[in-house]
Amino acid sequence: MQTLVQDVRHGLRLIRKNPGFAAVTAAVLALGIGANTAIFSVVNAVLLKSLPFPQPERIVSVPHTPPQDIFPGQKTFAVSPANYYDWKAQNDVFEHMTIYTDGVVSVTGLGEPESMSAGVVSSEFFSVLGARPLVGRLFAEGDDEPGHRLTVLSEGLWRTRFGANPAAVGGTIVLDGQSYTVIGVLPARLTYPADTQLWIPIVFTLDQRAIRGIHDFLVLARLKPGVRVETAQAQMNGISARLAAQYPADDKGWGAAVIPLHESIVGDVRPALLVLLGAVGFVLLIACANVANLVLARTLGRRKEIAVRTALGASRGRIVRQLFVETILLSLAGGALGVFAARFVVKLLVAAVGDQMPRVSEIRVDGPVLLFALGISLVTGALAGALPAWRLTRADPNEALKQGGRADADTGSPAIRNALVAAEVALALMLMIGAGLLVRSLARLRSVDPGFDPGRTLTALVAIPDEKYKTPESQRLFHQQVLERVRALPGVEAAGGISTLPLTNGGSTQPIAIEGRPAARMSEQPEVAVRIVTPGTLKALRVRLVAGRDFTDTDTDKSPGAVLISETMAKQFWPGENALGKRLEMTFAPGTMREVVGIVADVKLRGLGYREPIAALYVPMNQMPRGWTYLLVRTAPDPRSLVRPLVAAVRAVDPEQPVVEIQTMEEHLHDSLAHQRFNMLLLAAFAGLALLLSAVGIYSVLAYSVRRRTREIGIRMALGATARDVLRHVVAQGMRPALLGLAIGLAGAFALGRTLSSLVFGIPATDPATFASVAVLLGLVALAACALPAWRATRVQPTEALAEG
After folding, report:
1. Which of 37, 110, 163, 464 lies 20 to 30 Å from 323, alpha-carbon distance?
2. Is 614 part of any domain?
């Protein structure tokens, strides 16, 4: 221990003696360690950290698995009430089981009318989570029976709107025009689904409990102690098979999946985060190679000092340990700087990703992240010192003493330094190719025609409460009055409403039956995306009408049923025929045959990244009224200038109606690419960092070599070599390992193509144009990094160089 303390003291003295070297080394390591710490903080919060519930490994999501002949490639689907109650009654592997959905409620009586996100849950919801209240109680058995109006508040809502007053429990709050009793407060860390502000009971009538064909709900369950996921899956397979045999019209082909809740939350972002973690690992390796080169150069410069210490009795092991202590001290300094930088980077990441990533509120530089930073600092220091230490063990101290002060004597095996440069270039090239693929992919996504014109269009969600607008006629009248007032606003060119905005991976899908074709069971009926729209929606979005007519105000419940269909639906269901005039029935709205009155261009309903267009059906809102509607307003001026007039128009119809999610359609389009943009920006930033470190590495090695070979260069020039000869020689010396690194990097990037294949769009993961352009760019940067040392070599004066010898 005493020897280690001496080594640390000696290492600190050497660092103080060479502050420039220490600063450069620590800065290089800080870049690599800081980037890794920042990304690990995201990975730790999202992928590694357990959910904040008691025994979270026992909580599972139980979705439907749909028939693949109807939903090819779709792995999971929402659940119907009847199937949920059958699952609950027939299983013996779950301790608790709950059905729920999310919704929006209008809150009045607390100042300005406001829409809040609500969890609509059955009574066992909090038992499944194992949650305990902060104040009051949570839902218990029977709270979801008809006639109960109870609510549980989130801690955030309780603190902001009720001043954290315990007396709020037992009081009332007006939701959708009805008075609800507050029974408890849920702690913030237990909030589920994320960003939910309050919870209300889900109340099914007996008729609704028997609905088997409509899949609109989610199911969670808590496994009994000792029950494995595989055991629960096997039992759910058996239950699904029995239900399919018992109810073939609805359940044939439908199964159930048992998925750990943590996996169901983070499954979509896992591949991208692992790619980013691998990317920053490459950055750290490049930093290690850079530092190893710096330490190797410094160690070779200290050969005489080390030889003297060896001659005075210091063992080779002691010398190697001293070298490792020095590099680890430098690495710890770099780690401290990296953690300091990572705290700011994490804040930027959280702000950039917003609510587009699960568990984003848990991302922080906490204890586990600091331990990770300490660990990689120690490992990085050891790695950076390994090659210099190995080189030192092969050095002959007697040879070092014989060479004396000759600066050009370099037995330091330049092959090692060149190999490190090649490795840096190879890693940097792989990162840059990955970033280039994502840049091109995002450009391809942004060039995709969404099927509508997002320019100068304002959107806003107006969700009217069912309790207040109980009849279809009252809902229809509300939307008509709102649209009349909005269309009358100065600067409004067109206005309409739609049930779900385009580019949203959601919305309704429903089975249909085609007139004149053999009747099929519901489970075998084809499903199409259904959007409910008002007249004016096509004009507001500028969706092209291919054939037929648009909806008008005459398409009401008193007129024959009418629908618009997409071009893809027309080709899919009536290939080679004219679809206009064809009739169909929506299975969930039976009794009405609906005529195809128009065909419209395909719209990217689910997102720009979905390559194949989907069959879409548009229904006039006057024939199928609903409360949840997105207003679409195309304007002549800046759409943001219409925000206040739009809200005023809605409030003129109903003063208590909230208007939320106000944004332009261009902002909505921008938000729909948030994941791809986040991945691209981060990988591009890491690639830029790798490029910088690689350029520094090439420059430092070549500059060191020129410095060590000053006498040799002087002799060459004295024997007749021109400045051009020296320039060519030095550049060739620097470019050889760089070109080798480019070749290795191209092979590595090609081999890793599959890793990025799920993240790219519109181009292959081995796109030749990207590979070639990035390789040329890195080659030019390497050439530039060689230029300055080469130029300095041409400035060597032969007489001075020979005099130094």
Report:
1. 37
2. yes
